[in-house]
Amino acid sequence: MVKVLPTSRETPSHTRVGDASRVLKRFYVAERQLMRTLAAWFVQTSQWDLKRQLAQDTWETAQRADALRTRVLELRYPRRDVDRKYDPDMLAFMAEVAKAGDPREFVAGVYDVALPALRDAYRAYLERTDPLDDAPTAYRLRHIIADVAAQIDRMRALCAEVFAGAPEALEAWRGYLRQYLDSIGGMDGFGAKAAPPTGHVCAGRPDYEAPRRTVRDARWRPALFHLPHENKYDTEGQRAWKRLEALDKRVAMQVWSAISHFNEIWAAEAPASAMWDLDDQPWEFYMDLARWAWDETRHSTMGYRVMQGWGWDVPDLVPWGNATYNALGPMPPIQRLALLYFYEEGLLRAGTKQVELRILESAQDGASAQDMDYDWADEAIHVSFGYKWLKHLLGDDKAGREELQRLTDEARAIMARFVTEHKDDPEARLAPYFERLYDVVAEMVYDIPDDGLEINWAPVVADEEVLEEL
Ligand SMILES: [Fe+2]
Ligand SMILES: [Fe+2]
After folding, report:
1. What distance in angstroms lies between residue 272's CA and the mean position of ligand 1's atoms?
2. Host domain of residue 386
3. d(CA 26, CA 310)
4. What separation in Å is there between the alpha carbon of 263 and the centre of ligand 1?
5. Across 148-163, average pLDDT
6. CB–CB of 20/28 below 8 Å?
7. Which of 31, 44, 107, 276 meets the CB 3.0–4.6 Å disulfide criterion with 210?
8. Same-domain status, 42 and 173
9. CATH number, domain at 286?
10. How far is the CA of 273 from the centre of ligand 1 (A)?
């Protein structure tokens, strides 16, 4: 026999450091894969209200994954193997979540099954863990739970607005995912494991792939471009645009900045699709690309909000192009990022943001000026993302730089070819849009005192040089 003192308190099972780091890593893998899946389905979804919500939720999910990952690293310090040997059961479950048949089913799987299960598992962890010993986890989980609950509530409210009724087939999909999750022992893995429900009517679907083509919201008329300047053969469109400019260059800038912002959605689709296509990159890659995709969706929403604020019927009046993503779609993900970087770096270097902001201020358009100011702040970060990750993906040496140049040149040529191939498509001609818009804008303009600003501005498109060569 030996002598001891009694334990001063009871400790539940699964609450030691090893348990905590194992469970939190499994949560991290769930959130990480959910983030990538949301990004891919953001590209796939055309309904605008739903689409922009998926971009926001992608970024928020990245924040949760990051908090969990950081905590795992603390608990295992100095071990750095958090991104090795992901739990295969969790990977398999999240791969099933991605296999939804359409956005409605996808949202039902994520917001009615996966996220509520995660929320409950986080709550169970909080109840179980020692609030003193494991205080840094408890702090993070309280915020994470609030974040997940807000995402669920927000999406359910949005679905009630966007979708009429709830098709019964959804319940089969939810039921399948619940059974699958049970079979892997639940989100925390503490439940009894069983064979996956391979006999279920929803089982056995092919692996999910992010779409190479994007479709715009059915409420909009089909359009390839958003400005006649993108298709130099669209002379009628350019004439229609000139009438807007003739009202005042300030008016043209106000209209241009709203429509251009709205059409930045392709710049969100490019990094979001890369988040799915590339699944073996350092964690910071996904953090940065989630931010990039959400920022560009915010910029798009900025334009939309301005036009709604003017009382415009946006789907009726404003072209929403799909040419850029659809021309880029077949390219490898690195090449899509290379072209996006080329465009953004070029525009920022040319100092266009300062000029645009100055003209919007001269127009006394406080809303558009503030949007442009934040857009500028975001764009500077995006250029650093592009620089950092293209160097990482292609190599930080002469060969890497040459490959970046080659990929960029080839992508620019593909874009130029797309314009010549589609220049005469009815969707490539923008005069009808800008003629309708002129009438609306001409009704709205009013006089303010002239501040004497000299304006030498014409709409900027991403690659003037290539268009000139056509
Ligand atoms: Fe942007
Ligand atoms: Fe950007």
Report:
1. 14
2. 228-469
3. 47
4. 9
5. 96
6. no
7. 276
8. yes
9. 1.10.620
10. 16
Task: Name the pLDDT band for 429 (thresholds 50, 70, 90).
Answer: very high
Q: 215 in a domain, yes or no?
A: no
- The rounded Å distance from CA 242 to ligand 1 centre is 25
On average, the pLDDT of the chain sits at 95
Residue 204 lies in a domain: no
What are the residues facing 223 on neighbouring strands? Answer: 321
User: What are the pLDDT digits (tens) for 71-82?
Assistant: 999 998 888 889
Taking the centre of ligand 1 as the mean of its atom positions, its distance from the CA of residue 389, in whole angstroms, is: 18
Query: How many domains are there within the chain?
Result: 2
Convert the pLDDT of each residue in 210-237 to its tens digit: 999 999 999 999 999 999 999 989 999 9
**Nearest to residue 459, comparing CAs of 301, 268, 260, 266?**
260
Ligand nearest to the CA of 291: 2
Over residues 375-387, the mean pLDDT reads: 96
In a domain, 10, yes or no: no
Domain boundary residue, one of 149, 183, 217: 183
Distance 21 CA to ligand 1 centre (A): 38
Q: 240 and 173 in one domain? A: no
**Centre of ligand 1 from the C-alpha of residue 179, in Å:** 41
In the prediction, which pLDDT does 320 show? 97
Distance from the alpha carbon of residue 218 to the mean position of ligand 2, in angstroms = 26
Ligand 2 centre distance from Cα of residue 302 (Å): 13
Question: What percent of the chain stands above pLDDT 90?
Answer: 91
- Tell how far the Cα of 336 is from the centroid of ligand 2, in angstroms: 13
CA-CA-CA-CA dihedral for 135, 139, 141, 142, to nearest 10: 130
Per-residue pLDDT at 126 exceeds 80: yes
Q: Is the pTM of this model over 0.85?
A: yes
Dihedral sign for Cα 396, 397, 398, 402, please: negative
Cα 110 to averaged position of ligand 1 atoms, centre (Å)? 28
Mean pLDDT of 27-31: 98
**Is the residue at 190 inside a domain?**
no
Residues 43 and 263: their CA atoms lie apart, in Å, by 14
How far does the centroid of ligand 1 lie from the alpha carbon of residue 258, in Å? 12
Which among 65, 70, 63 has a CA at the least distance from the CA of 27? 65
In whole angstroms, how far apart are CA 46 and each of 185, 217, 276, 393, 433? 35, 5, 18, 30, 21
pLDDT tens digits for range 406-425: 999 999 999 999 999 999 99
Ligand 2 centroid from CA 465, angstroms: 20
How remote is the CA of residue 225 from the centroid of ligand 2, in Å? Answer: 18
Give the burial class of 346: count Cβ atoms within 10 A of its Cβ; 0-12 exposed, 13-18 middle, 19 or more buried.
middle
Q: How far is the CA of 153 from the centre of ligand 2 (A)?
A: 29
- Looking at the CA of 371, which ligand is closest? 1
